Hints:
Blueprint: H1 17-27, H2 40-59, H3 61-65, H4 74-99, H5 105-113, H6 131-148, H7 157-185, H8 189-208, H9 220-225, H10 233-251, E1 261-263, E2 268-270, H11 276-286, H12 290-303, H13 305-327
Antiparallel strand pairs: 1-2
Helix pairs in contact: 2-4, 4-7, 6-7, 6-8, 6-10
Bound molecules: fe (ii) ion (FE2) (2 copies).
Amino acid sequence: MTSTITPDPSASAVISVEEQHFNDLIDADSRIEPRDWMPEGYRKSLVRQISQHAHSEIIGMQPESNWITRAPSLKRKAILMAKVQDEAGHGLYLYSAAQTLGATRDDMTDALIAGKARYSSIFNYPTPSWADMGSIGWLVDGAAICNQVPLCRASYGPYGRAMVRICKEESFHQRQGFEILLELMQGTEEQRQMAQDSVNRWYWPALMMFGPPDDDSPNSAQSMAWKIKRHSNDELRQRFVNMLVPQAAVLGITLPDPELHFNEDTQQWDLGVIDWTEFHEVLAGRGPNNAQRLQRRRDAHDNGAWVREAAAAYARKQSARTKEMAAS
Ligand SMILES: [Fe+2]
Ligand SMILES: [Fe+2]
């Protein structure tokens, strides 16, 4: 069988039985499981992607948890708290998926708090108004869904399965964000302005969540050949904008892109030029809240040390008891 896979550079010219099996599974659109042989590049690429994704979920709790005590009603507090807890859960499923590839939780956490690991730049933007909870749900979770639904079919089994549950929860997040904005848009002039101002700030960073343009995305082709990724960055970004336009009309919100227009030939919404300088600045750690987000994560890690110690002490006690019982 001919394979569509680019050979792993570290592999020898002659393909091993295991590698052939791996290629066959990918070609057949089947799933690679932790027990299967896989090229080192495939494993590394997945560990990088899944751990970055996990870190994004965990750091992503911060801009919103910031608003739990200030949410305008008990109902809004309860919804927001549930959403932030969902994000913690997403982080945990994803760390577990990365662990099936040999990455350790300690190493991943250390890399994050040392500032060596990446996470989605979107979470480095501030949330100065309540409407930002609406924009995050509608735009940030909305972009996450566009990105993540195709990942439910990722070739690596544990990743794809984690994504199925995550996507179900992300749909709820998107709906609650839309609903916050809808309520504000049906409110006073001041509330409408607050919603519009918030969308103005989140729209472009949300478009950047899909990553750099296709001609500047070095890992994409290999990821697509390995069927981890199913669509290109620009394709997903376009899909997202096509989805947003009718929803913005329902909200009565203007998307802050004066060049946005419907292209009759392609039947798509053509967008204006994205400021990639800003994207690279935030990615390089010079975004508005990068330092604060990392410091909070470090503090949370230090403050949680006693929980990890207590859990380890309990596990030691349990294992000693099991051994004692086995010996008696
Ligand atoms: Fe999430
Ligand atoms: Fe979410």
